[in-house]
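Lab notebook, design round three. We kept the backbone fixed and only want residue identities now. Task for the bench partner: fill in a sequence for the structure below.
Input structure tokens:
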């Protein structure tokens, strides 16, 4: 498993981003000892993909994933909106993320399943459609329609789409790993998988470890943050146990720190590396001798 850090390429109101100075942060991320980077991108049309790929390659900093949530937070784009025009705009934005991911896929060290385009808040809210189960059913239908429409493009670009379970205080739709896995299996496309996030799982899952093992066949990317969304080691989560569960699940991808920038952005990055790097070494050693 390798470590990456979430960097926002533009200004954002989303708090759980340790660094948000875009290109200027990439050198810092590499210098701090991360193996890769995850980029939060509101609008890929504003990003020069070739220059970004060249910069990441020069730093030896592959891109693990692209976050899409800022399109929802700042523009209200939603794949499940009752308004057909908003759904179309959200789908087109997702296609743009896929195209950018495909360009970044050329940077050496990209995930074996391709750069992952994360479908988090961009999925929207079920309550916009209707209350209760009817709203969730209608939202899932719209989400499946939207994802099925772009998965061929993801396949052609050799990148992935990954649905992220998000806790109930941020969305009313797809809160647990099992709920996301059910949608993934109903769609049944090899490019569609799951993002696990330890912060959200701490709220929604009976057991983080059991949730990771159950989702193992579909696991494509992992976000790490402690129980309070601070860097690993600054809350009460047992990351040694979590990493062991990921090892048992056969996960060998990126652990991407999506944390609050506390005490400072650089401190958050350093704390992540200092807490997780020795544990990863232990996990690898146990794997080697087992």
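Proposed sequence:
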């Amino acid at each position: 498993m390798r470590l990456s850090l979430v960097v926002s390429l533009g200004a954002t109101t989303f708090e759980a981003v340790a660094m948000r100075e875009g290109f200027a942060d990439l050198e810092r991320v590499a210098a701090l000892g991360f193996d890769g980077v995850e980029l939060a991108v509101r609008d890929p049309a504003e990003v020069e993909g070739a220059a970004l790929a060249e910069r990441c390659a020069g730093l030896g900093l592959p891109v693990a994933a692209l976050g899409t949530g800022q399109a929802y937070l700042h523009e209200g784009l939603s794949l499940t909106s009752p308004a057909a025009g908003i759904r179309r705009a959200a789908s087109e934005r997702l296609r743009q993320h896929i195209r950018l991911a495909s360009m970044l896929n050329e940077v050496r060290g990209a995930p074996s399943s391709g750069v992952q385009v994360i479908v988090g808040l961009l999925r929207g809210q079920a309550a916009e459609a209707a209350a209760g189960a009817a709203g969730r059913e209608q939202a899932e239908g719209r989400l499946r329609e939207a994802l099925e429409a772009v998965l061929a493009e993801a396949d052609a670009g050799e990148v992935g789409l990954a649905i992220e379970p998000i806790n109930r205080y941020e969305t009313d739709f797809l809160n647990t790993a099992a709920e996301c896995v059910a949608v993934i299996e109903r769609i049944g496309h090899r490019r569609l998988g799951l993002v696990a996030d330890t912060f959200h799982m701490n709220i929604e899952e009976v057991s983080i470890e059991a949730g990771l093992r159950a989702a193992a066949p579909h696991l494509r990317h992992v976000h790490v943050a402690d129980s309070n969304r601070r860097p690993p080691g600054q809350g009460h989560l047992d990351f040694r146990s979590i990493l062991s569960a990921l090892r048992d699940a056969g996960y060998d991808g990126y652990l991407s720190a999506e944390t609050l920038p506390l005490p400072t952005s650089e401190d958050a990055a350093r704390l992540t590396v200092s807490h997780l790097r020795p544990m990863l070494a232990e996990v690898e050693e146990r794997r080697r001798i087992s």
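Keep this in mind before ordering anything: The chain has one domain: 2-289.
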